[in-house]
Each structure stands twice: as C-alpha cells, then as structure tokens.
Amino acid sequence: MITVVGTGTGAPPDESLLAGAELVVGGRRHLDAVRLPGTAERVVLGPLAPALDVIAAYVGEERRVVVLASGDPGFFGIVRALAERFGPDLLDVRPGVSSVAAAFARIGLPWDDAVVVSAHGRDLRTAVNVCRARPKTAVLTGPGAGPAELGAALARTSGDRVLVVASALGEPGRERVETVTPVEAAARDWGPAVSVVLCLDRARALGVVRTVAGAADAPAGWAPAEDAFAHRDSMITKFEVRALALARLGPRLGDLVWDVGAGSGSVAVECARLGAAVVAVEKTADGAGRVRANAVAHGVDVTVVHGAAPGALAGLADDPDAVFVGGGGRELPAIVKACARRARRTVVVALAALDRVPDARRALTAAGLDCDGVLLQSSRLAPLPGDVTRLAATNPVFLLWGTRPEGAAPATACTEGVAQ
Prior knowledge:
Methyltransferase, Cobalt-precorrin-4 Transmethylase, Domain 2; 26% helix; alpha/beta; Cobalt-precorrin-4 Transmethylase, domain 1; seven-stranded mixed β-sheet; 19 strands; Rossmann fold; 420 residues; elongated
C-alpha cells in the first residue's frame, strides 16, 4: 500500500500516518517538516522516474511506502503518476488543502467559478490566454512560468487584471499574499516559494452562482442572427458564414484568436464566448468602438486594436492559434500572408470578390498551410403579402481556410511583407 499524504497549506499532517513506513518520499521541505520513523529510507523528490522505480521495488516486496506532497496531491499532483504506475487500488490518499483553495480563502473569495490552469512544466501561453479570457483564474506556477513571466505577458493586453501572488502558503512566518498589477509582477524576482497566482478582473471577481464548477458554461448555440450585434449598413459576417468560420477556427479555452478587419466584431465575440482569448484588429475608430460595445453586451473580453492591417499586426507580440480575416481590400494578400506566417493552427478568410480568391489562396499555401474552401450561397425565408413566403438570396461569399500540417511550426513573429 502507498499512503499519499497532502501537507503544506493547512494543518500539519497526522504523523501517525508515517508509523511503520519503510520508505518515505517527498520534497525536501516536506521531509524536513515531519519526524520520520528511524528505520525508514528517505528519498528526496527530484526527477520523478527514479523515485517511482524505488517505490516499485518496495511495493514489489509488499513494504509500506508513504509519499508526502503539497496540498491536495490529487489536484495536478503526484496521485496521477502513482495511479498510472501502480493502479488506484494500491493508493490510500489523504488530501490536504490545495494551494488554490487556500489562496482564495486568504482573500475571501469563492472559487467554484474559477478556472485552474497549470503552467508547471508546461507552456505558459495557455495560462496567459486563459487569464485573458476569464475573469477569475488560478495559475499553478513553475520555473520560468512564475508571476514575473505571467505579468509580463498580461501587461501587453490585460491591464484591467490584478495578480494575487500567494507564497509559502501554510508556513508560519513565511506566508505572503500580495496583490499587484501585471506590470508590478513583471518587475519583481519572486523566488521559489510561490504557491499559486490568482488572476482577477476585480469588477467580476465575486462571480455568479454556478451549478457546474470551473470554466463558464458553453453558449447554448452559436452564429446568432446579425441583429444580436451592433453593426453598420449590414457590414457584418452573416450567420451562415460565421457558423462555418467558427467550425474551421475551432476556438477553445487556452487559444488565442485574431479577428482581423473585425468590423462589428461578431466573429471575435463568438470566439470569446467559446472560451478563447481574442484580439480584434479594426482600422476605423467607430468600428473599434462597436467591437468594444458588442463585447460588453455579450459579457466577454476582447482586446481591441485600432489600426490598419497588415501594419497593425506587427505590434501583436503573441502568435495566434487561429486567425479570421474578414476584410482587407487591396491589402488582402499582404494581410493573409502576415497572418498565415504566424498562425499556429489555421487561418480562415472570408471574401466577397472573386478576383481576390487566387491571391488569398496563394498566400495561404506559400506559408505552408493546406488550403481548402467553399462558395457559400444561401437563401433565407422571407414573408410576402398574403401570408406566403419566398426565398431571399444573400450575397455569395467565398470562405477559404488554411490549416497547418500537424507537427509543422509557424514562422516566428515574422513581419516580412508587412507594411510598417
């Protein structure tokens, strides 16, 4: 039997759980904080694989093993690795208070509506994008992915957020819980004692009563009618086109999506409703204002950049997972080229003009994307006098999409061909 004991963020572990242990495994600070049986072998956790091999040798001889871990070891913790190697039936898990629960408790906030994301040993960009998209996020940090790095990334686009940095939780005399701006977080050396970082939109930090914990509920549907968005002179991506564009973009929590030539921002808003962090680029001041207003009306976060593509794209530091291009005129080939070189997954382009389709397609394929497309022609039901109905044709739209082959990498923040 392997007894897994959570410690460090609440009451000290019950030392009776260590009685009779012949092997005790844990971080150095966990091992130093308890009295070990005099005959027990002690293994300080470093790389996980060698420790699991030692545990396996003891388990094979039916000798008792205790593993000490931080907080709740079943929450982004060692229980997963132990269950995969030895099976859950061999584990006796005694959880402590998780660092996430402790941090929210320290600031007096509920966290059933918080999204928890781990950046420990993982790419920080997912955590950054979740923080941009959601008003209440807890980030489990790691080397190279701590408060300073998170703050530096958020300072570029999310100045309304604050970071609550919780360090040495549960350690008398050392525990610290500090609220800072992203800029302030980026300027500090936080050391190795950080337990968790909370990223909050203060105006929405209390949240709402939830039935399902974690990420916000997915929208009941997508591609609502055009009148769900403020727009000018029918300058909006029609819902039939939007539905297919969303299917090809595949926006999800942890993604970053650009909406270039955003117009009303209908695509940007819908991507944000589906969980993605979104940057909308719009060249007109009134258009940028409408995007902001539509985002507020739909209760989502969209970062609006007022500027003309392709030049405005050079100022976007973070490469997107997916891009929707909904405008561009004569600049369209250069815009598509700039987007295709930086997109990690896909670029979707909507065009009304037949003459621009070949250039857009060449720009996608030249960037190494596999290109496909369709001409969308739809007719909507429209009433006529006498209680009869006709079909009213909408303008045909070409939808092209380029998908990066699996395993292929985009060019790195390249501005070649981008007008400055």
